[in-house]
Amino acid sequence: MRMAVVGLFAGIALAFAGYFGGFGAFLLVAALGAIGFVVGRFLEGDLEPGDFFRPRDRDR
């Protein structure tokens, strides 16, 4: 599925959550969507758990 279609579905889900559930539901759906995105990237192998805990290289 193309990323534009995925973005469209995410926008529709956020719009429904905001309209029917208010701002709190909008934030909940956005946060759960972001968590799902990160978990999906882990499962695809694009991210590793160490990516969040390793210090950045500073070449100064």
Condensed summary:
This protein is 70% helix and 0% strand.
Write a structural description.
- The chain is elongated and about 45 Å long.
- It is built from 1 helix and no strands.
- It has 60 residues and is mostly helical.
Q: What shape does the CA trace take? A: elongated
Q: State the helicity in percent bands.
A: over 70%
Please state the average pLDDT score: 80
Number of strands: 0
Share of residues in strands: under 5%
Unreliable stretches: none
Assembly type? single chain
Q: Given the helix and strand composition, which structural class is it?
A: mainly alpha
Give the SSE order as H and E letters: H
Largest sheet: none
Radius of gyration: 16 Å
Supply the number of helical segments: 1
N-to-C terminal Cα separation, in Å?
41 Å
Task: Give structural attributes.
single chain; 60 residues
Question: How is the topology of this model organized?
Answer:
Elements: H1 3-44
